[in-house]
Amino acid sequence: MNLPRSLTYEYFNTAPLSMPNASMLNMYNLGVHLRKVYGEFLGDLYMSETMKMQTAEYPLSMLSGQLVNAGLWPPAEIQRWSADINWQPISTDYTVAQEDTLLMGIQCPNFVLEMGKVLNMAQVRDRVSDYSSLFDHISRSIGIKVQRPSEVALLYAVLETKADLEQSLPHWAKDIFPDGAMYTVSLLEYDLLWQTSLQKQLNGGTILKEILANSLMYINGRIPKQRKLMMYSGNERNIVGVLKGLNLWSPHIPNEAASVIFELYFDNETESYGVKINYYTGVDGITLSLKMPNCTEICPIKTFLYSIMDLLPQNAERLCNWKKIDLPIIPDNAIYSRSVSHTLKSITFTLLLVITLLVINLY
Asked: What stretches pass through the bilayer (predicted)?
């Protein structure tokens, strides 16, 4: 079995990898799904003012963003540049990896140091030691010393890709993959990435802050009204961190193309704003409507703000060990002054903005 030289997040992100055809189709189909759901809202004609896509600096994130855009924005007749090619180029943005606190927070220098402290906590050592026999079994089988849950989680991703490619799996994985101990330890890794305040702010908090800030800037006119969609091509750890931050997490390994979708609504009757959260599972086009604890299906934006306030870093770059960013000032008239009961069936709701965080295939 050919394995990567290093079972680290850094190696997996930077390695020159290719996506299996099935994975590319899943990403493309996410774009098709978004077109089906939001097509009338977005319109058929792509304009740069309508959508912004941000990826990480790494190849798989960029490729995933391009595939989603291909499914989402087939060229309108006026934009066709070839009779034989039903595709148009769509630009994406990225932040260099060494400054990306939004999508690459777990690689921040301070996060790495914090993770070392977490792994040295007595209760964590006890939990990890429960799987020492698994680590020994894998280490003997692959000839690489495995002793951290993160290494098992990354190896799990390798096996998932081999399964997607319909390649034969190693005999040593028979009883521990896809279910069993490797799955359990992969879920443990998600928990270990979300133990301390610093971890929560850099692994989920930065994205929630971005979503909140974009919503408020749109409300305040600091984002053009022509903007209807903002997309972020992240990874499954981003998804897990966001769902944990919203108190909506249920243990599972997110599928590729899984997405957390935030919809910003305006209620014409109460003249107030709210956020609805959907989870596209990436499986058979299933979308789940999620409701935060102590909130309505369309959560008043003030309630949404208060529920995530402790997770929002005041200065993500400094927390990470990079430069400063600031959360926009929240004027009183931009948020709910009271909790309002909502129903999606009410025709008084106007969909204003959609923000999507999607999962790429890790390996």
From this structure: none
Contact assessment for residue 16 and residue 52, using Cβ atoms and an 8 Å cutoff = no
Sequence-distant (6+) residues with CB within 8 A of 177 are 156, 159, 169, 183
Query: In which residue are the tokens 């007595």 written?
Result: 122
b/e code 341-351 from CB counts within 10 Å (16+ = b): ebeeeeeebee
pLDDT at 328: 39
Query: CA nearest 147: which of 5, 9, 1, 7?
Result: 7
Q: How many CA atoms lie within 13 A of 61 on its CB side?
A: 27
Q: In the 8-state DSSP scheme, what is residue 292?
A: -
Task: For the domain covering 21-107+204-318+352-361, report its CATH number.
Answer: 3.40.50.1240
Which residues have C-beta within 8 Å of that of residue 193, sequence separation ≥ 6? 106, 115, 199, 203, 237, 240, 241
Q: Which two tokens stand for residue 73?
A: 């924005």
Task: Please choose, from the candidates 291, 208, 238, 200, the residue with its C-alpha nearest in 3D space to the C-alpha of residue 64.
Answer: 238
15-46 pLDDT, tens digit per residue, is 656 688 888 999 999 999 999 999 999 999 99
| pLDDT number for residue 27 | 94
Answer whether residue 135 shows pLDDT above 90. Answer: yes
Q: What is the pLDDT of the chain when averaged over all its residues?
A: 88
Per-domain boundaries in the chain: 21-107+204-318+352-361, 122-194
DSSP-based three-state secondary structure for 190: helix
**pLDDT over threshold 60, residue 336:** no
Question: Count of alpha carbons within 13 Å of 169, Cβ hemisphere only?
Answer: 18
Q: Are 265 and 278 in contact (CB under 8 A)?
A: no
Dist. CA 66–CA 235, nearest whole Å: 15
Q: pTM for the complete prediction? A: 0.90
